[in-house]
Specification:
The complex is a heterodimer of chains A (345) and B (306). With 345 residues, chain A is mainly alpha-helical. Chain A is built from 15 helices and four strands. In chain A, strand 1 and strand 2 form a beta hairpin. In chain A, helix 2 packs antiparallel against helix 12 and helix 7 packs antiparallel against helix 10. The longest helix of chain A has 27 residues. The C terminus of chain A is likely disordered. Chain B is 74% helix and 2% strand. Chain B has a domain of 193 residues. In chain B, 49% of the residues are buried. The termini of chain B are far apart. The N terminus and C terminus of chain B are likely disordered. In chain B, helix 1 packs across helix 9, helix 2 packs across helix 9 and helix 9 packs parallel to helix 11. The chains are: A mainly alpha (345), B mainly alpha (306).
């Protein structure tokens, strides 16, 4: 049943560019798709280990900058009179480097910040993202600072036996994002169902008990952070090569908040949650644009976030799934459990 | 040759000294307002266990109150501060009653996200009402600064320092010498026991949030006229407040005051001797360093969360 829904959803998403000709909407779908990948990676941390990373955009942005710089090349002086000169490499290698670099950053952040939990973990991750943003803003020789890195090349796929296929059109980029999103989804799904996934969940539910049965806390959490950061880095790389211009504003806190909203509204700890929440919140600005001023849109955005937390604190997908299973398990049990008790959530 | 060389060094160290003194004076002025921000947040964080993302918006709100009072209504500049404190108090109480009270007992992540939603909505509201163009406030102080030896400081900044010091003392007395303050401290230590001893914990939470918010608004009302006023000004202020709270330890008012001055010192020295572009990075680096090496804060008495 679940597999059928997944396949139907993929087919539906794959058919979109065939009937949707509006470039503005297609563009909105592509950027939404990229952010959905980011939200899925955030969900791996937030939903399956219970750690709220509010600096998640740092990994996304690092991926974007690493990928852009790999494909653009740079010439930068280091303290001590060294110079590092890098010739432009193909963007596809940039994507690989983006994944590696973001994963490495995830390793260090994971290692350092899992010493502190809860609110403190949140604040460490925010600080990390802001420091990275300030470096991107001030290390002008490498990043061009606020002038932005421009003319980032589009991703080119080396096809076996054929010449390279450079992904320039919106339709090509749409399918690229869809494929990467699908890979990320399947990877996370596989991971969550593995032994490692059960260890993560065990830690989230009851850390003391998990430790007592031999789960290594630091190793599990750090590995989750590395994988999560690497996926976010891949999303950042896609973003850089699609938008083709990157400036320090990519690290803006509001971008992390967007991902968090996607995860929370869709349902943290549910695989489909970030996808559903991501599509809703990614496309909400498009739907609101004709009827509202941009500032009012953001007010609505904040309002909807609060409303979801009050009305559906567990998120859309888990609440719907619960309702469906309850209906199927028979009206008798339903009548027994629900008499007199108002169902919340 | 050697003589000329040594004179140049002496001359250089003379400017270096006056530069350093100037940084110290700036540090005092900044530190006072940072301390206000930090006290407000440490009270809310410590007593209510709420990661208050609206703290920065309240700071912005206070600055806009000054703008309204002085520029839009043309009233006396000195009236702006008390109005901002009162408005911050009311807005804080309203946020607590409508958003936080219904969520009491939810986990810390849920309340934090609701606070983020409120922050986005309120900041966008500010942008909608007043636009994104930075505003400045005319002050009654003379343009010429007060010059003492090598150091010059504007009269406005002196007023900011004096007002901040006054508010810090008032808050200290409120927490340590009044029955409300005693109830707040009891709630901080153990809210169940405090509740059993007849403390109205709901009322304490509302008062705490209102007082914390009014201090943030006061900080904004004081620093707003020094710089310029714009809707996003509170974002950095909020993170700085978190840095101060982490430095000083949760719920520790003295720690927050010292933390405010340490952050101001780090920023002044960082901007003066490293690079002015990294001034705002100091707060974040302090947060990361403190949480790695001494997660309980530098002046910890209280237990940390998480």
């Amino acid at each position: 049943m679940k597999a059928v829904i997944t396949i139907l959803a993929v087919v539906a998403l794959a058919s979109v560019p065939l009937w949707l000709r509006d470039p503005y909407l297609l563009n909105a779908l592509i950027t939404t798709g990229i952010f959905v990948i980011g939200a899925m990676s955030l969900n791996l941390l937030l939903g399956f280990t219970g750690q709220l990373s509010l600096g998640h955009i740092a990994f996304f942005g690092i991926g974007a900058y690493v990928s852009a710089l790999t494909s653009l090349g740079f010439d930068v002086g280091l303290p001590g009179g060294f110079r590092v000169v890098h010739e432009p490499w193909p963007p596809i290698i940039g994507l690989v480097f983006a994944i590696l670099a973001a994963g490495l950053c995830g390793y260090f952040v994971g290692l350092l910040s899992f010493r502190v939990r809860g609110a403190y973990f949140v604040i460490v991750t925010i600080s990390f993202a802001e420091v990275v943003r300030l470096v991107a803003l001030n290390w002008v020789e490498l990043t061009q600072g606020p002038l932005a890195l421009t003319n980032i090349p589009s991703i080119a796929l080396p096809l076996p036996g054929l010449s390279e296929l450079t992904l320039r059109t919106k339709m090509q980029n749409y399918y690229l994002v869809l494929v990467v999103a699908l890979i990320a989804y399947l990877l996370i799904a596989r991971l969550v169902r593995s032994h490692f996934g059960r260890a993560m969940r065990g830690l989230m539910e009851n850390e003391t008990l998990a430790v007592s049965v031999g789960i290594d806390v630091t190793k599990t959490l750090t590995l989750a952070a590395v994988i999560s950061a690497a996926i976010a880095g891949a999303a950042g790389s896609l973003y850089a090569h699609y938008i083709r211009i990157i400036d320090p504003e990519v690290f803006a806190f509001i971008n992390t908040v967007t991902m968090v909203i996607m995860v929370i509204s869709g349902g943290k700890g549910s695989l489909a949650g970030p996808v559903v929440g991501g599509l809703i919140f990614g496309l909400l600005p498009v739907a609101l644009r004709p009827v509202m001023a941009p500032e009012a849109q953001w007010i609505a955005y904040g309002g909807v976030l609060m409303a979801i937390l009050f009305v559906l604190p567990r998120g859309i997908v888990p609440s719907l799934a619960q309702r469906l299973t309850r209906r199927r398990s028979g009206a008798k049990a339903l009548a027994l459990t629900e008499t007199g008790v108002e169902e919340r959530a | 040759m050697a003589q000329r060389h040594s004179r140049r060094i002496a001359g250089y160290s003379g400017t270096a000294l006056s530069e350093f003194l100037q940084h110290m004076v700036n540090m005092l002025v900044l530190g006072g307002t940072y301390a206000l921000l930090g006290i407000g947040l440490t009270l809310i964080f410590g007593i209510m266990n709420v990661v208050n993302f609206t703290h920065g918006v309240l700071y912005t709100f206070g600055a806009y109150i000054t703008f309204i009072v002085v520029q839009q209504f043309g009233l006396n500049f000195f009236l702006a501060l008390p109005v901002a404190v009162l408005a911050g108090w009311l807005l804080g109480a309203a946020i607590e009653l409508t958003l936080l009270r219904p969520l009491r007992g939810s986990d810390i992540d849920t309340t934090m996200l609701v606070m983020i939603g409120a922050w986005i909505a309120m900041q966008s509201g500010t942008l909608w009402i007043w636009g994104g163009v930075a505003k400045s406030v005319a002050t009654p102080f003379p343009d010429a600064p007060l010059v003492v030896g090598p150091v010059s400081v504007s009269w406005l900044r002196l007023f900011v320092l004096a007002a901040a010091a006054l508010l810090i003392v008032v808050t200290y007395l409120l927490i340590n010498k009044t029955s409300l303050g005693r109830a707040m401290r009891a709630t901080f230590q153990d809210h169940d026991t405090a509740s059993l001893m007849g403390v109205n914990v709901d009322m304490i939470y509302t008062s705490t949030f209102a007082i914390g918010s009014s201090l943030a608004a006061a900080a904004g009302a004081l620093l707003g006229p020094v710089y310029v006023i714009f809707p996003q000004m509170g974002d950095l202020a909020a993170v700085k407040a978190f840095a101060i709270v982490i430095l000083g330890g949760l719920g520790n008012i003295t720690g927050a005051v010292i933390g405010g001055f340490i952050l101001a010192l780090a920023e002044e020295l960082g901007a003066g001797y490293v690079s002015s572009g990294y001034r705002d990075a100091m707060g974040f680096l302090i947060i990361i360093a403190v949480l790695i090496f001494k997660p309980t804060g530098l002046f910890a008495r209280a237990e940390r969360v998480g």
